[in-house]
Amino acid sequence: LLVLGIGRNGHLAFHEPGFLTDKLVDIVNLTPETKSDNGVEFSQAFTLTLKTILKAKEIILLASGEHKRDIIEKALLGEVSLNVPASFLQNHNRTSFLIDQGATKEALLRVLKAKLKEAITKHLGDSSIKVFASDLDFTLSPLGEHLRKPVIEKLKQLAKKGIHIAIITGASYSRIKEEFLDYLPQDFPWQYLHIYSNVGAGGYGFDSSGQRITYYEVKLFPEQWEKLREVVKEFKEEFKEDFEGFRETEEMKGTIVLKDRLRTKETYEKYLTFLEERLKNTGLIINGTGHLGTIDITYADKSYALINLRERLDILSENMVYVGDTFAGKFANDLPAMILGVWIFNVGSIDNLPKGIFSLGIRGDLGTEILLEVLLEKK
Predict the structure, then answer these.
(1) Which pairing describes strands 164-168 and 131-134: parallel, antiparallel, or unpaired?
(2) What is the secondary structure of 166-205 as a DSSP string?
């Protein structure tokens, strides 16, 4: 992993514009602009060269401030040229650009969105999309916050177009109501809306007036709760420094809450493996959500919800789009959807994505909003 800044003249490391070399590390003459920006008196410096930089497996470019606007536009959208060394990152297939609003022009955002929309449209091809399914947290809205008005409006337009909307999330129905349903307008096409709560353990629809219709509720049996509580006690003893609590939701889901979200993937999978070994043959499904610091245990999962929706609407998997943010890792709770042949999009981590998942490259609800725009424009 190589983390870089960018100079106002487009230099990377100290590889200045126009500098040509075949070496991996070289001595370069610094421009007056670079000396001034870095507050240095020396006129030469050692630098990693473009040859070395482009060999990195992954690159993250950081840029902030209005004084970087012009060079960011040239680097991302301009001609690839030694006159702007950062422009060569256009040819690197694993570069992420972390840019604040000060360094981003509206024109640049429009061009980037247009390129992304073009790629999504090409990816979907001539497929007829009849269902837009989505997670809630970090996908349609930030964690614990309600939806932004532009997203609500696009969902409404999509439903009016005859495309069904399904929210498939680990949240309880009461939280979905508080953060999502209560913000929908009264004239929303309710009959095109479907809610799957508790990681797919509860399924609901609505009539034209917005009254809830229960499709199913998959609750744990008493003996499953008894076994689960027993295993949670063992888990608490084994990982007592990490264990924060255990909650039971609507008789459909048990959730282990961990203290620290910033754990390694290896440590998190150790928790999940511990539970998997002790809960096998119980029929219970473990749904790990590492970025939330929680582990959900249910009798259903998101693929269960997608299957129910597909059969309820009598459509094919290729008519369904699903967008989420947790796809990495052996126990990722969105991974079962891959089995169904659904079009899968990612607005979260780009690491270790299973083959076939389209990464939008823009995290959270901004990425989801762009996907919604594509679906609205699609014939």
Answers:
(1) parallel
(2) EEE-SS-HHHHHHHTGGGS-TTS-GGGEEEEEGGGTEEEE
What span, in angstroms and rounded, lies between the C-alpha atoms of 374 and 216? 32
CB-based burial label for 332 (10 Å; 0-12, 13-18, 19+): buried
- CB of 342 closer than 8 Å to CB of 320: yes
Q: Which residue has the tokens 């950062």?
A: 86
Report yes or no: 49 and 21 within 8 Å, Cβ to Cβ: yes
- pLDDT tens for 269-293 read 888 899 999 999 999 988 876 566 7
d(CA 153, CA 142): 17
The number of residues in the chain equals 379
Round to whole Å and give the CA distance between 374 and 190. Answer: 22
> Whole-model pTM?
0.76
pLDDT, tens digit, for every residue of 175-188? 999 999 999 999 99
Residue 259: closest CA among 292, 293, 232, 226: 293
Q: What is d(CA 213, CA 300) in angstroms, rounded to the nearest whole number?
A: 19
Pairing of strands 44-48, 25-29: antiparallel
For 183, the token pair is 């913000």
